[in-house]
Amino acid sequence: MRIFLLLLVFVLSQTNACWSQQKELDSLIRALQSHPGEDSVKILILNEIVYAYRNIDPDSGLEYANQAIALATKFNIPGLLASAYSRKGVSYASRGEDSLARLMYLKASEIYSNIGNMTGVAIANNNLGLLAFNRSDYRSAVDHHTKSLEFFIAAKDTFRIANAMINLGVDYQYLSDFNTALEYYFKALALFEQKGNDPTTYGIGVTNSLANIGLVYKNIGEYEKALEYHQRALEKNEEIQNPAGIAATLGNMAIVYDLQGQPEESIRLLQRSLAINEEIENPRGIASDLSNLASAYHRLKQGGKALQYIQRAMNRYDATEDRHNQASTRIQAAEIYLDLSEKDLAEQKISDRKRFELAENYLHQALKIARGIKVIDLESSAMGTLADLYKKRRDYVRAFNALTTYMQLSDSVMNDEKRLDIVKKEAAFEFQKKELLHKAETDKQIAFAAAEVDRYKTIRNAIAVSGLVILCSAVSGLVLYKRKRDADVLRKEANLNTQITDTEMKALRSQMNPHFIFNSLNSIRHYTAQNNIKLADEYLVRFSLLMRQVFENSDHKKVSLADDLHALELYMQIEAARLDNKFNYEIQVDETIDVENTMIPPLLLQPFVENSIWHGITPKKGNGTIKINISRQSEMICCVVEDNGVGIKKDVAKQKEKEEKEYRPSGIDITRTRIDLLNRAQKSRASLYMYPLNEGTRVEINLPLEFTF
User: Fold this and answer.
1) 600: domain CATH number?
2) pTM of this prediction?
3) pLDDT above 70 for 399
4) Among 280-294, 568-582, 618-632, which range has the highest average pLDDT?
5) N or C, which end of the chain has less CB nearby within 10 Å?
6) Which residue, of 367, 399, 431, is where some domain finishes?
7) Mind giving me the DSSP string for 216-256?
8) Does residue 334 carry a pLDDT above 90?
């Protein structure tokens, strides 16, 4: 289980100024020393010193906050008193003392409300939302942040609008609503980028937006896109010299490398992040780095080190109110215990039975926490690990029940329609961005032409001026025409990409339809009820492998022929077992084809194999055969699926409607659409043909030959 390294933004200042760490702090200290008088100016300086100390030395910040509170109370200046309480809350939050921080924010909010300062109330709500987030009360966090956003929108405060959107995105991300989270992140990024690169205001906002977009892509398995956004965030953080942001981004990148099977690179980045977090004394960053180091060592099968790091991480999270990470580290600890080698068990002096007990205990603790804070993806992860535990203990009834619950929870977190919605949101954002760039360039050209008219109109006669005006209009017309033409091209590209994505998602739904999943799970339950443990275990293993292969393949536009045929063979093995071996199959590949480096669209042949099984062989008396042949024909690859089933009815004229229903299910229609879109996108000559045979049906798909190198 990975820990989210989200970059929450404190929106605390009552002015548009935002002091930058040590350099500004030194300047403020000098200003305080040169202002010995006790007045409102001194209170203002004290408040800004408290804020500047927030990430450097919050203990010193508390001392200055107490001075500010005392002075503001003495002179009865409620606005500055509320600001002092708010900044004192920041210091407590930086120390991890969220309960005390909450009391300070509530006091500040009450004072602001009494004097009618609604901006202050909104800021207090924002910070109360951050504290609710830290204690994993995400619904309350959403309520607080929504209230603050509504006010900032009414006040047209762009900077705080964007920050509130990031915080709402974080809240929704932890509620597993990735679509809403991404929508807020993209809106925030657009606002920040419009305002330039000022590091004291908008620069950090850009890095926060980029980092959180990267986290969404990491959570849905889009690792390359996640790294792309994290790299952009890292470069921006280095540019504005933001050490906390650098550490968090390094940690985010490390997680992705770990998930990609590169634990050595992950450890290298995490050690850099940990060193920075320890230097700036960031307790939450340290805990997160420790957890992720445990994950990397776990992947390297160094169980002893993994246990040391995860125990340190758990101890740190248990000392906070962060219930989300309290649960996630327990799931992680359970996974490490389940994977301990015999050597690790001996070194840790733990018996095989004891490690199962420890793992199960951690998972039940995690489930209790996850259900308490209503976080579905945590509950899903715990149930999935619990299913693995029961399977390893050969408790197949419990394993089946846990797996069923896990799949139901996982589907509610991220189904293929949600994934498609995310892709569409990004496509819409990029398209709008390109349109803005086109508009800016067009406006620039029009402005230039207008300036030329103004410059020369005093020295040209009326005829010349008229000519220039006509010329300017012509230029503007041409520019506008070009803009419209370019926009049309972009729209066509976006529509084509959306059609391709729609079709790919439909192909996935077509392959892994609910009937197939239900029937497979039902077969496992049937074998278990018959106490046929061996068959149940074999079936469960194949089913798990198939599900993993299908969802991994569905993440890519092209996969190797070897991977696609492997998934197809698993599918046929499962269906053959469930139908009591009513059919057998053969897969033949031309020796001239390099299956590892030849690329084809994923999930292309499965609908035709499914059609052969259900509409060709199942109605047939006796057993049948399915033959799959892959051959090379010049610069094309020919894929053939042939069966000896009942075949396509020949009386097409009389039974056209019935045959469309029986012999052209949605999977086949989707494949035709995919091939058509492939031809449009690549200008290729891919084709699909279906032939009736004397006994059975033959399907032939011709694709352009593509390689990975």
Assistant:
1) 3.30.565.10
2) 0.46
3) yes
4) 618-632
5) C
6) 399
7) HHHHTT-HHHHHHHHHHHHHHHHHTT-HHHHHHHHHHHHHH
8) yes
Distance CA 94, CA 417 (A): 39
- Same domain? For 428 and 380 the reply is no
Do 607 and 507 have their domain in common? no
Highest mean pLDDT among 159-163, 303-307, 474-478: 303-307
Q: Is the Cβ–Cβ distance between 182 and 170 less than 8 Å?
A: no
Percent of the chain's residues with pLDDT above 90:
24
Single-letter code of the amino acid located at 295 = S
Cα separation, 521 vs 222, in Å, equals: 28
Q: Is 421 domain-assigned?
A: yes
Query: What range defines the domain where residue 601 resides?
Result: 553-707
The answer to whether 640 and 687 have CB atoms below 8 angstroms apart is no
User: Which residues fall within 8 angstroms of residue 205, CB to CB, at 6 or more apart?
Assistant: 9, 159, 162, 163, 166, 188, 191, 192
Give the torsion sign (CA, 401, 402, 407, 413).
positive
- Three-state secondary structure along 592-603? CCCCCCEEECCC
530: helix, strand or coil:
coil
Q: Which of 372, 399, 426 lies at the terminal end of a domain, its last residue?
A: 399
Burial of 335 from C-beta contacts in 10 A (0-12 / 13-18 / 19+): buried
Answer yes or no: is pLDDT of 489 > 70.
no
Domain count, the chain: 4
Tokens 């993440």 identify what position? 555
Highest mean pLDDT among 358-367, 371-380, 405-414: 358-367
Residue 195 lies in a domain: no
